[in-house]
Amino acid sequence: MTRLDRYLFRQLGVTLLAVTIGLAALVWLTQSLRFIELVLDRGLSLAVFIELTGLLLPSFFAVILPITTFVVVLFTYVRLTADRELVVMRAAGLSDWRLARPALLVAAVATGLCLFMQLWLVPVSHAAFRSWQFEIRNEMAAVLLQEGVFSALGEDLTVYARRRDADGTLRGILVHDTREPGAPVTIMAQQGRLISGPAGPRVTLLNGVRQQLDPATPTRPARLSTLSFAENSLDLAESGRNEPEAPRNRDSRERFVPELLYPNPAENLPERDIVKFRAEGHGRLAGPFTALSFAMVGLAVALASSFRRYGDWRPALIGVGIVVTLLALGLSIGNLAARDNRFVPLIWLHALAPALGAAWVLSGSPGLPRRRVQPAAEG
């Protein structure tokens, strides 16, 4: 790389790193608010919350990196034009492709990072996130129970413990269970202890009363049945009290590309999911190339525009409009391909066609008007 290449590459690389990290942090902050209840209501530590939501960052980076690459390339070259630096470089005889070389190198690095994330890091991190989230909801009820607080373990189970001793014994327990439709159960016990089992956490209750409201039938009204017990056991997992724990279904983001393109027949997936997975697989493969395509769109718009002494906002506006249109088109194509795989070629066309169009513009654009030397008149 020449000194000029290093100068442009350094500006593009540092700006891209700062903008990408800043935007990813902003997206992470807004998305992590959905899980803040794990800290406020369920007693998880802040470190666990940060580690859990941090597993979402690879997905954010994979989505925003093509966009930030375009933004950085476009506005860096527009600024260079406004500062007359491109004028000097062109006066030195540099062509548009020569000026675009550092930006293309940055875009190639961004494309490689996107490929790495989409092919390996995103499914690994998302699988870890889903597994941990499932464990918190089904296996960590012992952690989520707090003394003196009505703890909601799912949407249909609430547990209250007046006190929790140092050895883990719960005192003054109240359980309200609505997992059986039409027959809510309320259990009060003097004490109990949490036990981890193969189907999830269970609580063993001692010296209590079980009250269940039996629904009304055509022959009798609803009635309340009361049962005193010396010992009773209750399943706290969300999967239900008397049902075996169902295996966790893996969504498309947890699967690697070969699993998406060629699903395992043993899973007996419905045809709708198979079509969706294939579209997701092609989207994973083609998506990273939008980083290169969007960067070339930014280069084509910035370098093909003519120089204006007092600045020109039109290249930035045109470039942003083109990429926003491409993003909206990409969402539409992805939805079409997820319903019908005959539209899958459009995913690749959307990813590669902007790069080809930008290359054509860069090859044929006149750039700044150059002086032509007039031959001396004879005689």
UniProtKB/TrEMBL annotation:
It holds the Pfam family LptF_LptG. The keyword Membrane applies. The chain crosses the membrane at residues 12-36, 56-78, 99-121, 285-304, 316-337, 343-362. It is a multi-pass membrane protein. InterPro entries: LptF, LptG/LptF_permease. Keywords: Cell membrane, Membrane, Transmembrane, Transmembrane helix. Residues 236-256 are annotated as: Disordered. Residues 238-256 have a biased composition (Basic and acidic residues). It comes from the Bacteria. It is found in: Cell membrane. NCBIfam families: LptF_YjgP. This is LPS export ABC transporter permease LptF.
